[in-house]
Design brief:
Mean pLDDT: 97
Number of strands: 5
Radius of gyration: 19 Å
Largest sheet: 5 strands, mixed
Bound molecules: cobalt (II) ion
Strand order of the largest sheet: 2-1-3-4-5
Order of helices and strands: HHEHEHEHHHHHEE
CATH architecture of the largest domain: 3-Layer(aba) Sandwich
Strand content: 5-15%
Low-confidence stretches: none
């Protein structure tokens, strides 16, 4: 298959026909509303396509992706997505999905200039810095990258929970769980890091917003 846009338009036509055949009336239903149960925050990496790897169809998962699946508190893009997902769509589960061998994480571990993206990836260096001792015990560079990929997931799960968006939802009795998982591009398997957070008591006191 070439990389021409015409091919994609053709693929799309086939897909739309097939999808409607398997699910009669699906486009009509989806055109009226979306009602996804999940919010996915993942990496932009082309090898980690959200819907595909968790077997979900259009309408079933709300998706935000950026380089290295970061949730920065000054990023209006991710915050707008998070607010809409929690307040309007009332998703039950927020899934932060990282992946091993992440190019963004790898770049953050290097001491060379890559461009504008270095500013975006800066907070990953901070995670490394805080855990420097643990990293110094590892001799293998790939192990370092993968450990930092996991730590990055943990950090971003915390960042999601520290937002006023999620905390306000919890205060109002809305059930929202925030999960951290990591995907392996080597075998297509997602590992649950078992760090799910479901309430305000599970976050560090300094980040808790008192009402
Ligand atoms: Co990545």
């Amino acid at each position: 298959m070439g990389s021409k846009i015409e091919q994609l338009i053709e693929n799309n036509l086939k897909w739309a026909e097939q999808f409607e055949n398997i699910n009669p009336g699906i486009f009509n239903k989806l055109s009226k509303q979306q009602n996804p149960n999940y919010l996915w925050i993942g990496c932009s990496d082309s090898r980690v396509p959200a819907n595909t790897i968790v077997g979900l169809q259009p309408g079933e998962i709300f998706v935000h992706r950026n380089v290295a699946n970061l949730v920065n508190h000054s990023d209006m893009n991710v915050l707008s997505v998070l607010e809409y997902a929690v307040k309007v769509l009332q998703v039950k589960d927020i899934i932060l999905c990282g992946h091993y061998g992440c190019g963004g994480v790898k770049a953050a571990l290097e001491q060379k200039e890559h461009g504008i993206v270095d500013n975006w990836l800066r907070s990953i260096k901070d995670i490394y810095s805080v855990n420097q001792k643990t990293f110094q015990e590892l001799s293998n560079e790939l192990e370092k990258i993968d450990l930092l990929c996991e730590m990055n997931v943990v950090e971003q799960v915390r960042n999601i929970c520290h937002t006023s968006i999620v905390q306000n939802a919890w205060q109002e009795g809305q059930e929202v769980s925030v999960h951290g998982v990591i995907y392996s591009i080597k075998d297509g398997i997602i590992k649950d890091l078992n760090i799910s957070i479901r309430s305000i008591d599970e976050i560090e006191t300094i980040y808790q917003l008192n009402k």
